[in-house]
Amino acid sequence: MERFTGLIGVVLILGIAFLFSSNKKKINARLVISGLALQAIIAVLILKVPAVRTFFTYLGKGMQKIEEFAKQGAAFVYGGIITQTNSHGNVPYREQISGDNPFVFGFSVTAAIILVCVLVAIFYHIGLMQRIVSVIARGMNFIMRVSGAEALSNVASAFVGQVEAQVMIRPYLKGMTKSELLASMSGSLACIAGGILIVYANMGAQAGLNLAPKLIMASLMAAPGALVISKIVMPETEESQTLGKVKLEVKSEYTNLIDAISHAAADGFKIAMNVIAMLIGFIALIALLDWVLLKAGHVFNPGFDLSLNWIFGKVFYPFAWAMGVPEADISSAATLLGQKLSVNEFLAFKSLTTKEVPIITEKGLLIVTTAICGFANFSSVGMQIGGIGALAPERRADLARLGLKALLCGTLASYLSGAIAGILM
C-alpha cells in the first residue's frame, strides 16, 4: 500500500491549489486531467520503458562528459591552484582532469554553467533550440488546449533559464492575460535550466548517485504540472491572443556565431558568480541562524540542539509523507524541501549529494530529487519580477501581484511531479 500513499499527496496538492483558486467555477477539468496524464506518461516512459530509460541514462553520461569538457577550459584558468584529491594528496587542479579528481564546487560549477550557456546560445543562434521548443509546445498545446504563449514558455523553461524562457514569448508578454502570465511564471519556477541541471547531475555523480535521468524527468514533468496547478489557482477568464496556436517569432539577437559564444560566456560567468555569491551568503547566514537557534534551544533544554533543519523537518513532514517518501527518509526529505523553498535548490542539492541530509532509499531519492528540482524559492521570485519586468515594463505591477502565487504554483507543481513519480516507482 505504501506505493499508493502518493495518491494522498496528489489529492492534497490539488486541494491546496483549489483552496487558493480565484474562480473555482471556471476550472477546466479537461486541462487538469490531460496535464496529470501527460505528467504520468513522461514518468512511465522514463521509469518503466527500457529503451527510453537507457536513452536518458546515456544522456546523463553525456552530461558528465560536458563537465569534463568544461574542465579543460577551467584547467587553463585554475591550473596553478592546488586542491586536495580523494586520497588526501595535494595536486594542481590542472592535473586532476583525469584520475583522482574531487568535485571542487566553485571551479566545476563555473566551468559547467559557462559551457552550457555557450552551447545553448549556439543552438539558439542557428535556430535549433527554437525548433525543438516549438515542436514540443505544439504537442502540449494540442493535448492540454492551453494557449500558444504559455505552452512555449513552459516548454522552454525545461531547457533554458527563467528569464530566457520569457524572451521566447517577448512579443506576446504585453498582451498576455493574467492567467497566462501566472502560468508562464509558474513554469519557470517549477522547471530548471539546462546548465544548472547538469551541475546537479554532476554533483550527484561525484556522490555515486545517478541523478541525471531523475532530473531530466523532473524538469519535463514540471512543464505540464505547472500549467495544471496555475490553471486551478487562476483559471482563464479572458480571451488569449494566442489561443489555439503556437507561433515562435524569436530571432537570434546575436550578429554571428562568435558574437553568440562571447555573449553567452559572459552571461554564463555572471550566472555562475551569482550562484556562488548566493550560496556563500545563504550558507553563512544559515550558520549564524543555527548558532542563534542552538543557544536559544539550550536555554530551555541543554540537551536540545535546535536548528533550521530541525524546524524544516517538522514543518514539511506532512508533505514528505503525503508524497509517498518511505518512513526512513521522511524527516530528511522534509528538511530538504524546506531548504529548497526557503533558501534555494542549490543548498538542498548540496545537502543531498554530500549526505549532510541523507536519503537512504531509492524511492525516497526519486521523490526528493523530483520535488526539489526547480527554481521555486523566494529569491527567484524577485529575479523573475526584475527579469520579465525588463522585457515588458508595463506588466511589472501584474508580475509583482502574481509573484507569491507563482511561487505557490511552482512549488506545488514540483511536489505533484514527486508524488506521481513515487506512485510509479
TrEMBL record:
InterPro entries the UniProt entry points to: C_nuclsd_transpt (IPR008276), CNT_C_dom (IPR011657), CNT_N_dom (IPR002668), Gate_dom (IPR011642)
Where's the Nucleoside transporter/FeoB GTPase Gate domain? 109-205
Q: Give a Gene Ontology cellular component term annotated to this protein.
A: plasma membrane
Keyword entries, A-Z:
Cell membrane, Membrane, Transmembrane, Transmembrane helix
Q: How does it sit in the membrane?
A: Multi-pass membrane protein
Write one Gene Ontology MF term.
nucleoside transmembrane transporter activity
**Family from the record:** Belongs to the concentrative nucleoside transporter (CNT) (TC 2.A.41) family.
Under which name does UniProt file this protein?
Answer: CNT family concentrative nucleoside transporter
